[in-house]
Amino acid sequence: MSTALDIAQEIIRPTEDVKVAIDTRSAPRPDSESEQETWPGSDHEPPVPRRKILAVVSHVHADGKHEHGCVFVFTHKPPLVHSIPDDYLVEHAFPIIHGFSISMSQPRQTTLDLSSPAAGSSFSLNQPKTELTVTINPGEDTPFSPITLQTHDIQGLRRLLDECKRLKEAFAMETADDFDFEPFGWVAPYMADHALPPLLSSIPPDLRKLKKPVHTRLSAASAGMPGDDISDVEIIREEWMRSKVEDELFSRGEKAGLNIRVGTFNVNGKFPSQDLSAWVRGEASRPPAAFIPPLKEISPLSLGESQKNPVDEALATEDPSNGQPPDATSTDTRSLSAVSDATTYVNFSVDTQSTQTAVSDAPPDVPEDPSDPDMLVLGFQELDLSTDALLYSTKTVREEAWCMAVFAGLGEKAVLYEKLASKQLVGMLLVIIVKKRLRPNFSEIRGLAVGVGIMGIMGNKGATAIRLLFTPTPFPSAAEAAPLGRPTVLTFVNAHLAAFDEMYEKRNADFQELSKRLVFEPAISVDEQAANGSWYSPAAAPLSIFESDALFWLGDLNYRLTPHDADVRSLLADDQLREENIKTLRRFDQLSSAMRTKKAFEDFVEQPIRHLPSYRFSAGVHADGMGYDMKRKPAWTDRILHMASKAVTVKQRSYTSHATITMSDHRPVSAEFELEVPALGLDEYESFVQRVWRDVSAIEYVEERPRVRVGPTNIDFAKISYTREVTRSLEVVNVGKVPCSFRFVPQGPAADICPPWLRINPVTGLVLPGEKVDVTLTAQVDEELASKLNLGQAHLEDTLVLHTALGRDHFVAVSADYERTCFTTSLSWLVRLPGPVRELKSPDDVLPEDRGVNAPREIMRLVNWLMSNATETVGLFFTPGDEELMRQIREKLDTGEEFNFGALEKDPKLALAFADTLVRLLESLSEPVIPPALHTRCSQMTSRDEAFELLDDLPVVNVNVWISLTAFLHFLGQQDAYQGRVEQLVAIFTPVLFRDDLTSPMPVSIIGRRNFLRYFIG
Amino acid sequence: MSKQFQFKLVLLGESAVGKSSLVLRFVKDQFDDYRESTIGAAFLTQTVTLEDQTTVKFEIWDTAGQERYKSLAPMYYRNANCAVVVYDITQSTSLEKAKSWIRELQRQADPNIVIALCGNKLDLAARRQVSQEEAKKYAEEEGLMWGETSAKTGEGVSDIFTSIAKKLPLTAPPSARAGARAGPARTGVDLNKQAAAGQGQGEQCNC
Ligand SMILES: Nc1nc2c(ncn2[C@@H]2O[C@H](COP(=O)(O)OP(=O)(O)OP(=O)(O)O)[C@@H](O)[C@H]2O)c(=O)[nH]1
Ligand SMILES: [Mg+2]
Q1: Partner B contacted by A476 (CB < 8 A)
Q2: ipTM score of complex
Q3: Which domain range does residue A598 map to?
Q4: Among A115, A229, A912, B151, which one has the highest count of C-beta atoms within 10 angstroms of its own C-beta?
């Protein structure tokens, strides 16, 4: 066991000194021994007196002259779940002032209970010992009452009393005028320690907040204007603690996995009539001939009247564990909440019955595969299209039918699963199915529905959501008990947003509205929470869906494609160019554009789509060759996105649609996710957080100013150029006695923290005394910046200002020399270069407009090299080039140096790098080779002659580039290696030479532009 | 009850003239023979009490004198109520530099700013290059306060700050108090109150 001094020193910060610390225990009241403060020992042992540590602590103020003392009593922390060994907190702090007194009383003989495990070494001698009583009187003018303790440590107590005397005498010598600071200000932080540290909350922080850089949340500050240091410290400290927890606890400890299969399906009002196994199990692990219930389309009306339907019977035989009467759900579930603006139509259910059956019916003969999902999250839309559905709930029947079809789709695995929860709002249904054996790992399940449809509230559009906790270490017994493990909060949203191509903005608005209104009401009252006693208890506050560790958003989001209907269809129909064309169309997807412009789904992640659009299919004469409805432009309406904090690792394993399930006008879409969460005990987590907190809890209270050394103070990045990053490291060393939080601030109120060519990481930080933080400075020039720097001065310099909270500003001078590049400029500027771009001293040295060359040398050099060295190489433009080779080629273009690659000359890798460099150079131009104003006309040309005529309207330089490029591509297309690949060349070069306008709601025909290019190279 | 005022003061002047040393002497009554050049800006506070018991609290920004950081100085003298422009009496170039700072302040700082010109390193008077007459004459012409100090011996240091305090408009509390810090906020238990209240009760330790 740690000595009293060890424990006291652990708690007391380095700015103070522990003079003496001794072991004591609370003194029994004279009248009854049993009222002594105790913690229960193990079941049959008598209660153990609580160990208390009495210490004298002194603080010498920053002036080096004044010393003040304080008597502390540390006590063992009340156990949380089980007690954390050696965790103490400050119970009392008595400043040693005029009124203060401490005394020891008449010794008395006493026999101790020696079996006590919590007693210190001084207790454990098996003989009667002298026990002294210590009485501390804080002084009459203090709000504290006297306390009494007992100790055996006579020697220690003597030293302790001597120290008190010395400090009290020192205090008596002072007068208030001696100092202009608060003599006992340093004690306050120890008392503030009782406040719950950040991160000890059962509610995860808002994911949207976590995705924003910390410095954007701090107070406005700049050089000489420190802002609100106190509130900044709080934010920086919380962030620092969070990354400590992530780096030192989450990433090092054990992990638990959770495989989730997410699906979304707009069923268009249909009843299930096909095998769903492809959607719910995946194609790969299809079992042979899974049971398919014999389902027919039944009118909702007839269903409404009959209690029994074939589906129920099918299920009754298929899954004995679920073999309840069809209305079982409504009788055997308890409604946790029914929160909605359209309350009448909402039902939320959690299956409790099957939890019990799970134990008895554990299927012995069905083996689990590692690929079986632990959790199935399925979102349905348009479950019921009848107008009645808006008025009456038709919930049970359709929900039952679809759930049964899902279980049927699971085939022989169905017995492993049970329904955990579901939530419906009119046509939207979200169902969560889990492995029976994992049922105890899920808790605090809550459902929610919000309508944003007709009149902004009706449930024809909107979302339903389910929030739950996943705890890798299961609960001790009843589901109500506080979990032992640290839970992870998972939230799933199934949404159906506004329909029709032109309702793009409405869909974005629906998303924003749902983000605001999808708030789970508390399950328990604040009182109940307080009664729980532990910091961890079910949240008694309304919870946003974003207050999750991981959030999945699925559904029929209804985002469409912007190109012309005919374009979309012919791009999709071309199975030769499927991959290339899907990539092309993805650029014109409204959801991608909403995410890019941050109009909706900001900071969500969606894996790039590789499947065909899931909407809208039709049969017979109404359909095109692909089966898409002629009246609706095909689109990726059905989507699955997610967003997660660093507490969870989310890996997506698949994202696909299922063409075999044809009963609806949509195809179902599924995605598989592998989650990894820390498998931690709550107590382990808490003590880690408390330990981290102890070092930093008092930064804003301490009187000492932080002192850091920052260096080097002059950082030269030397030569920097387009796409090449140069990094330097800056050291922030804490040479003071108190933790120091720092942030970089801009020079002026409206300025940026650093020049555009520099990146600082981290921008904020916290350094403990004696430790250091490395800040990485990265100089980098991206396309946008290069195009500016190319036209400006080459020498760059600036000063960074690092502000330490409650301390000083530090300057770091940074400088670099920009090396100009031919990339990111324009054709008209390139032709005016008197020589290689690197030799340009000043931007004013370019030739007059009428004196330029015919075509940019750089482009001609690339084309000529390819023409003479690469036409035999297979895969030019289709295979990406090697980055290092491309960097060398770029360098030679910029410096005008000869292309001389020696032995590499014959390597196809070099040719591929040349081809890719050409594409990238063209892509980086500030304007495409064909000026945007001509795109529409180009797309309308119907013959080669017309197309050639149109070239007359291009600037001469552009015509020259166009002709030489297309001549080369034409020649390439004639080569054996490119037989049948001309179309692919056309598909690749169209966006390069024309550049897509992604902001246009109605882009110029892609097919038309391809046709134009084909007139030249086909 | 005595009055308390708070003012923002900035120190400007060529590198190595002794700005940081002056502040260290004023605030902590210490001196360092080997001080590192300031690369940044330090913030300190010190209070002076005048004869009529009025107290003036200075929030002092000690700036970097190196030419490299000149462009950042305006960030620190904006909203300043007073400025101490320092030169080294053994370096005549440092007076030229001080003059250029004064011109900049007159042009760009708060028009009501109180400026003191301070000739430091008085202990090195044997190596003097700037005569008292020259500096004094310039100060008078420009309407500045003037004094000579030695951060090393302490001579003249508190005088210059006290004269500034006297010259500041003590009739109304200063309006511009940019750079004011939030003091320790939200203490858990107000222990200071007890400490103060406990004074004067001469009870002895029975130990
Ligand atoms: N003899 C003597 N030396 C002094 C005096 N004041 C400062 N010094 C010395 O002069 C040198 C520069 O002093 P600093 O206070 O660092 O000068 P500074 O104006 O703050 O310089 P920067 O921070 O670079 O702007 C140090 O070596 C000091 O010890 C003084 O009054 N007399
Ligand atoms: Mg200095």
Answers
A1: no
A2: 0.85
A3: 255-282+336-678
A4: B151
